[in-house]
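The data are quoted verbatim for completeness:
=====
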Amino acid sequence: MRIPDPAGFTTRLAVQSLGWSPDGPAREAVLTLAERAVLDTVAVGVAAREDPTVRACLAGLGSLAPGRATVLATGRSAAPRDAALVGGLLCHAFDYDDVDTPTISHPSTVLVPALLAVAEAEGHSPEQVLLGYGAGLLAQRTVAAELGGIEGHYSAGWHATGTIGTLSATAALARLRGLDEGAGRHALGIAGSLAMGSRQNFGTMTKPLHAGIASANAVLATDLAAAGFTADPDQLEGGFGFLRLHHGRPAEDAATVAGPDILGVDVKLYPCCYYTHPTANAVLDLVGQGLRVGDVARVDVTVHPGGLSALIHPRPTTGLQGKFSMEYVVAAALLDGRLTLRTFTDEQVRRAEVPPLLELVHPTTAEEPPFGGPRDGWYATVEVTTTDGRVLRERVDRPRGHATRPVEEADLVAKAGDCLDWGGLEQSLAESLIHSLRDLRQAESVGAALAPLREEVHP
């Protein structure tokens, strides 16, 4: 049974976030995780800076409010709220940013731009940015637990990156800015009304906008709360508050999440929806074992219940839609033997070889996998029937890059280098940026760490 908590969830979350300060090995683990997340997030953002989504966003916003925060897309400076808005969208534009499986969301694309923007503008230390990241990720897990699990929230159509992300980034900034408990509660109350994001917009420019708005709204919520602006101090748990509106259901126990073991995130090695990654991993393993596209007569993909819910474009016509198409991801993996940034351009999705392959891919869901034993969370099985009647099988439950299969340091740096090269950053500047972000706690300031981006200012 749930233990009664007279303080209320809004208060508990504020107290947890404001007072969170790990020490010893736990502190080192958090700092390392956060540094890796900052590098990965900024790199995938720079990769997208010439993307039409980002160009259209900048054109639509027009002149950004002046300030001292670096806009990751351009290297210019703007007010923290505008820098966070553009940064959040930028870092999610390619859907190559990291994932938090327990919350079905992308944490770093919301947390990192907001933390960097506010810290640079206000002079907070790099280490406080990293600890703020840990506090925000912990808040994200805590909110999901208080919802009684994310499934009801997600299946109702909410994009958790925008909804829970708004709360987690607000908690992170409240800690960074040193708000007191009362202001922290009001900030979370404001954020509870600002949280938004509809999954109907997956496969469009608006999906990454959810991340940008969440990041910017966290800045707004803490700006207002710090100035004395108020909200219902029990907003999150109230009768018309966040938990009820967002389809939460009572948890069996009060949410208590602590320790560095829960702070891992899943680093994406393919720039597409994470629901496709176990399947992509399995198909690429088969290709590595000798499977060739001309041998394929049929591909049966089976995933856990809900594992197709975000994959709403079975016959994509654009690169954005291709990121949310199980059929296209399988087809591209068979055609090319890899999944890269180039895979998800409009030109690649519209290749003449693609439509016939899409017809061969048959995704479905099942409570238990068709082979390989019972499931433990997510899973994907791939059964390829070949033109000569053989059936090749491969199963992947946790793809490479999952928190339980962490990316090696060399692979993380290689991914960052590829992204910065795709984004057109000059090599010496790219190398400098990778070094400064991967060792962010050693940087003189956040501004100093981001200096390579300001040396190559884009219009």
Q: What stands out?
A: The chain is about 50% helix and 5% strand. The chain has a mean pLDDT of 93.
